Structure formats: structure tokens, C-alpha cells
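Lab notebook page, bench 4
Experiment: in silico fold of construct C2
Operator: M.H.
Input chain length: 293 residues
Purpose: comparison with the prior construct
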Amino acid sequence: MNSMPNPDIKPANSSDSSVWQKLSQPSRDLILFTVIAVSGIFGLFLLLDGYEKSLVRTDTLTGYILFSLFIFLGALNSRKKLSMIPLGRASLWLSAHVVFGVAAVGLFWLHTGTIWPLGLYEQLLTAIFYLVAISGVVGFLLYRIGAGQLTQTGVEVIYERIPGELYEIREKSEKIVLECTEETGSDTLAKHYEDTLSWFFRKPRFYWQNIFGLQSADHWMRFHAGSVARYLDEKETAHFDELMTLMRVKRKIDHHYAAQDLMKKWLLVHLPLSIALLVLAVWHWFLIEVYAI
């Protein structure tokens, strides 16, 4: 007699998502490039061990590999400028940049044989390299935290368009207050707007609170909403509700402004340091070749 199949037992080819499938694409990219980087470094260790046994200098090989890695990491900025050309997902490039940037630290130590060299020029090169690495890690953390926070806002806005968006919101808010005064004959909402709310609508607010994910803007909005709502009649309340809707939209745009502005400012630190590192590396390579000749 054939037994009935147990509904609680699922076949091996079940459609349930595996742990890998549940990961986000950026997380998969990070894991993939980490495996590649670790495998590459391990293979390099084995190769260098063979070179040392044959009494061949290894610093030249590691130097060229490290310099090539610098060129590759610098290509991320070119990828951003050529976003219209299909060169792969930006998140893929970012993951590769982060993983191989961390791998470059280990390769740098392997090349120099020390954490801090003795020569003045070498110390300058090392200091800039560490600053580039640290600023890179900080930038990646800012990006991951900021991206998650901005996704939760439910709105998307381009950084360059934020001033125009805020201007339109401010114009709408002033129009609402003017209509309220004309329709109701009361200036209660107008006075509250002039004394308090105009400050909020004038420009992006709560910059650092938004950076750290604090709810200061929400608390401020609720406090000032409650302080005036009790004095408004039914018609004024309807206009005030429209004003609150605009305040919530602006609060989200302020969050976008803070996160995107911080990333812009971070680039003003990381990018010049990266260019300086590349220039010093080229000069270092030139000196080595001259002495070799």
C-alpha cells in the first residue's frame, strides 16, 4: 500500500529561499569580493614564500600589485562619471572598492614589511595611505547607514534639486497661511507661522540630528503643533492640517539633504587624499626605477 505524502515534509527542490537568496544584492557582492580577495591574498602568500626560498626580492612584485590595486580603486570615481555607460551596477563597484580597499591595507603591510616605516618620504606616503583607508571606511559606514535611513523616508530626491523643492514647499506654506487669514479673518495661525514655523520652512533644519537618526524634528513639530492647535477653530484647523502635511514632507527632504550633503563633504576629504596617494605612489615607483637603472 502506498503511503500518503506528509504535507509537512518539503521536497529538496522547495521554492523556499535559501539564506543566500535572502541576502540583499550589495551583501552578496561584499561576500563574493571578500572570498576573491582572501583567496588572492592567500595565493600571494604562497607565491611569495616560494620567491623567498629562491632568494628573489618580493617587494617589487608586491609593489606592482599594490600600485595596480590603487589604479583599480581609483577607477570607481571614473565609473561614477560614466554612469550613462553600462559598466555594471554602481553597488557592485562600491562593494569591490570597499573589499579591495581593505585588502590593500594588508598588501601594503606585506610590501613594506612594517606598519610604520623609517624614512621621511615613506612615512608621508604611509600616513596618507592610512588617511585614505580610514576615510574610506568612514564613508562606507556613512553610506550604508544613510542609505537605510533614506529608504525609510519613502521619498526620493536628487541633491541638486533640494533647494528648489524647499522653495516650492515654502511658497505653498505661505499661501496656506494667507488663505487661512483671508477666509477666517483670524491671524492666529499667521502669527504662529511668523514667530515659529517660518524658521522651519526657511532652509534645511536639524542637520546633525538627521545625521545621527534622532527624532528631534518630529518632537519639535509635535510640540509646536500642540501649542497652537488648541487656539484654532474648525476652518483654521483644516488649513493647519495642510501645513502639517507640508512640514512632514519637508522633514523628509531635510533628512535627504543632511545625508547627501555629508557624503558630498566626505568626498572633498577622501578624493583629494586618494589623488595625493596616487601621485606619491607614482613618484615612489619612478624613484625605484631610477635607482634600479
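Observations: Residues 102 and 133 are 7 Å apart (CA to CA). The chain is about 80% helix and 0% strand.
Next step: discuss at group meeting.
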